[in-house]
Amino acid sequence: MPSSIQLTSTGRLKHFLTVSGLSKDLLTEILDTADSFIEVGERNIRNVPLLRGKTIVNLFFEASTRTRSTFELAAKRLSADVLNINISTSATSKGESLSDMLQNLEAMASDMFVVRHAQSGAAHFIANSVTPGVAIVNAGDGWHAHPTQAMLDMLTIRQKKGSFEGLKVAIIGDILHSRVARSQIRALNTLGVDEVRVIAPDTLLPKNLESLGVKVFNHLEQGLVDIDVVIMLRLQRERMQGALLPSEQEYYKLYGLTREKLKLAKADAIVMHPGPINRGVEIESEVADGNQSVILDQVTNGIAIRMAVMSMAMSGQSEQVNDDAMEQAR
Amino acid sequence: MKIEILNGQRLTSNGQWEQFDNIRIENGHILSIDSGDSNFVPERIIDAKGCLVAPGLIDLSVSLREPGANVNGTIDTETAAAAKGGFTVVCSTPDSSPINDSKAVTKLILELSKRENNCRVYPLGALTKSLKGEQLSEYASLKDAGCIALSNAFNPLQSLIVTQRCFEYAKTQDLCVFVNPMEPSLHQGAIHEGKVSTIVGLQGIPHTAETIAVAQLIQLAEATGVRLHLSQLSCAGSVQQIQQAKNTGINVTADVAIQNLLYTDQTTESFDGLFHCQPPLREEYDRLALIAGIKNGAIDVITSAHRPCEAAAKLMPFAETAPGMSTIELVLPFAQQLAKHSDLPLSTFIKSMTSNAAAILDLPNPTVERGAIADLVIFDPNIEFTLAAENLISKGKNSPYLGQELIGAVRTTMNQGRISYSLNPESLT
Amino acid sequence: MPNKLNIQSMISSMATALEKYLKQHGIKSFELVGIRTGGVWVAHAVQKHMNNTQTLGELDISFYRDDFTQVGLNPKVSPSKLPFSPEDKHIILFDDVLMSGRTVRAAMNELFDYGRPASITLAVLVDLGRRELPIYPTIVGSELTLTKNEHIKLVGPDNLHFDIQRIDQSTP
Predict the structure, then answer these.
(1) Which position among A108, A135, B31, B61 has the lowest Cβ density within 10 Å, counted as fewest Cβ atoms?
(2) Which pTM was predicted?
């Protein structure tokens, strides 16, 4: 099972690759730990010495300034040393294999790799290939998972709504190509919300979605009724080329979140978006900036969540290494 | 050489396992069965106590990887692996490097395989030039050089008119066409489109990518009169169509790859590149439909779909790995598994890999009867072993069974009366 | 013997000692900070005895410990609460049990990340000795010696009392 490589023998986190296979208790622990890091972010000195002397490498095979910066900031607030490697300009474009590159990087005594890659399963592959003792955090792999994004979204929901019980959550947009949506669906169901809905045309929906515990809607008018949390996904321009959608205008007309459409949801519904926002494509400016929007909170929470998973994964790796050493000594 | 096999069970022509005292082989043929003649002095005696004796296996789709990069396999290693698997005849896929679309390459393959002499190789010629799916290759020349049939080796045919022309020209040259059915615009991705592809976030290949192509190919076969053989089916819907086509008398046959009988797409959820296959592993109901198809004759042949590759080719994120498994040495232990867990009798399995395969290749029906060519496999169904990379002769160690227990091993393979493989007991542990 | 520990009288003597100390040093304005969890209970109890109603600061030192590589991260970490800035303040730092001194070292590092105090005075309920760092308490409820396989834990917040556990020296 994919998840078991994420956990130590005592069930502690040692890699953070996917929400899949993690228990409700462990997800809650991530959220609770993140709360402490939010407090750290409110101090004058927004640093704790927890990971001092550790080296964290941001290994980004897909360019991303936003996500990479938040990971970098999170690592620095933990007092770790950070190395940024942007692969699109380096060796693999020259044909060096992923395995070889990892070996070279490991020789630099890194304690953790934060990996973003265009291929689903890349983070799993790296976690399976890397020396024991090195933690892997998935910053997004293909369409498969973006677990830190999902967890910061969960943290935001918990902050605004108090708990997950009884909540109805709608995810709107290109689910098919969205690693964020897949991770969010897993997290929401594990944390026990009442209902998870997706709203999109069939061209943007993967098959057999119901088996993931999701109610599928093709129309905003039905899907938004009674909703407590609205999560908008970004629509990429390329989707208009692959015969998936006719135009941005039609998409906005049917699936764009406007003030009018938002009224279908509960009056105290919150609006979320993983960013960056396409104003006028998936969301109306007034809604993005309006008082139901919690988009900026998501950004702050992103740093705290990443500090939490990096600390927990590093902690789990130490435990594993100590365990293995004791086993050897026997 | 005069050989005597003692005391085993042989597969009779009506699919039964029958105990025998002795089988005598001389001049490459089976001289007698249960003969009392004491004048026969064998130069070699094989004690087949507890073993099963069947005709040597025939495989319709083996990638020998030569000519090509030696790291993935050579004719030497892969035919030796085939002999170890109990095969006396294999058809090599045309997707070598260079592609087998010319008599020069065909002749090279034949020369190398004859030199190694591990098993007989019947090359498949490329259905189109460079397998690009656009232009005919020189069918007559390929046939003349020794190609037994033509194949597209999982490369798309660019349009139906090209497919039709290939069929017409192949019929003219009296060649059978082996086609892997795939509608190229739907066949995008590395795994089956279903619940698992949704979970792992990988582009999935829907059933329709195969079933629509099957429908088109069957109709074109009917219209042109070519002998069509559909290679490596994976969908229940394809089995249905073959059945219907046969019922209406269309000259079409089909095979399945053993990987699609053993596994489903569940195995891909862990992103293990060893389960990246062509065609993709599909749902359980597809797997069961394929097995039912073998039992009721809709599907004629099982093939190893042996695709050896070097370790590095599987050491990357799933969708980037090279597809295929190394299977040819393990076909009979796999057959035993299928007999045990999936209700597919061993004799039916063997028939699909002997008589049925021979029929498609227009070869004489292999039997273990007096007068038959001595193409035999002696199989011990009870040997238990854990598969280790060192045990595999093939250069391809890409088997998901590494480290796992298997039951059954080939003791001896005999190719036209000559022993082409003999088990070394130490090598199994 | 640990059973003879009378927490109430220890708290009472700590409160008296603290008041005396503050007067001796002319400290009129100060802040009270407890190290979670036991230190917070002790601070609260002492504060009550002194009829002091200031809001306590609470420190969770999980992120400042020196043994991360050995024991990893506390799964039950929760946010520190400092409702005041320590900048230029006299801090009375409370903990329940003082032994190696590492906890107090971590707490001081954390306090300094909030601001630069004028002074820090350490008040502990029980001093077990066995110091590994140069840390000393000014206010002590009681000194205590434990054997190698005894382990002490404060139970609270109501009805504060000590639990002594005997750790069996089982072979690994």
Answers:
(1) A108
(2) 0.90
